[in-house]
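>> received
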Amino acid sequence: MTLTEFKRMAKEKIIALELLWRYGATEFPPWLSGVRRIVAVRSYGFDLEILSTEGLNDPSQKTSRLDVERAAQFQLDGDILSVYKSGCRPATEAEQEALDSLAQKVEENPDISYWAMQRHFWTFTSAKGRPSGRRSCYEYLLRNRRRKIDPDTGRELIFDKNVRGELALQYKVHGLAA
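>> returned
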């Protein structure tokens, strides 16, 4: 089932979630425990009811957010809903060319400013990725760099919200059956 189908179903019928796993932990604060109804479907994900205010900073809080903004972060197998963090992917040839070009500039001038790096990515024209020689904005590379190298490809890994990363949350879904 896709994220869109699950959201549609959550709008039409009562569905509840029970937290099973959260960032490696299986024991949770009281306000995250128990079978909690989805009370609203939002663009960012879902609002879940809070059954206990014990441990909350704001005892008047009635809901908590379950953020699932991208379909790549969502997986439903049977009655187990898994939510993943965003992940990293190897840089494309054009992105790697932009990164290599910046590395060369930094080697020439180690005191290069953040704004000069940003300008470099904004105005960089890739010879490999753009045969027409058109400029493509690679400014996102400055924000999404992780400075890790993929051992398989030798290319730098780029953070990408559309790539599935590590498991973050796991829920048991109640109310899926007709």
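>> The longest helix spans residues 93-108.
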